[in-house]
């Protein structure tokens, strides 16, 4: 198993969340290239704005690649994005909780998203 070094490219799902944004900040500070998955162009713009107003990320813009995948649970949604990455940090979870949400729906969505990431990781061509 290869070692993840500071020159590695890491795919991060859930980068627009609180924990995900902190993880991306740490990776950028280490010198990692980060592919951050977002669900819309607007979320990508907001993520970049948030990350690069932080002085710790100054000069690290070239290390961040924001990739839009609107439907994260779509079969093979991550296949193209996963090419060239050395590691995956899966932090995303679909979350739309309201008073009528059933636990099975919430858990099922999270499981389907995780399976989509894992299927793409398993598929990843070895170069």
UniProtKB/TrEMBL annotation:
Coiled-coil spans are none
Q: List, alphabetically, the InterPro entries matched.
A: Epimerase_deHydtase, NAD(P)-bd_dom_sf, NAD(P)_dehydrat-like
Record field: transmembrane: 6-28
Q: Which Gene3D superfamilies does this chain map to?
A: NAD(P)-binding Rossmann-like Domain
Is Electron transport one of the keywords? no
Protein's UniProt keywords contain Transmembrane helix:
yes
| Domain of life of the source | Eukaryota
Q: Name one GO molecular function term.
A: oxidoreductase activity, acting on the CH-OH group of donors, NAD or NADP as acceptor
What keywords sit in the KW lines? Answer: Membrane, Oxidoreductase, Transmembrane, Transmembrane helix
Residue ranges of domain NAD-dependent epimerase/dehydratase in the record = 10-121
| Family to which this protein belongs | Belongs to the NAD(P)-dependent epimerase/dehydratase family. Dihydroflavonol-4-reductase subfamily.
Q: What is this protein called?
A: NAD-dependent epimerase/dehydratase domain-containing protein
Upper classification of the source organism reads: Eukaryota, Fungi, Dikarya, Basidiomycota, Agaricomycotina
């Amino acid at each position: 198993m290869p070692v993840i070094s500071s020159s590695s490219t890491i795919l991060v799902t859930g980068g627009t969340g609180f924990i995900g944004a902190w993880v991306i900040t740490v990776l950028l500070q280490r010198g990692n290239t980060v592919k951050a998955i977002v669900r819309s162009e607007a979320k990508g713009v907001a993520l970049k704005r948030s990350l690069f107003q932080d002085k710790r990320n100054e000069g690290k813009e070239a290390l961040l690649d924001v990739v839009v995948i609107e439907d994260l649970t779509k079969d093979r949604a991550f296949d193209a994005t996963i090419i060239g990455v050395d590691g995956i940090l899966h932090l995303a979870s679909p979350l739309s909780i309201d008073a009528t949400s059933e636990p099975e729906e919430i858990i099922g969505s999270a499981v389907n998203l995780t399976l989509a990431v894992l299927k793409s990781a398993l598929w990843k061509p070895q170069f």
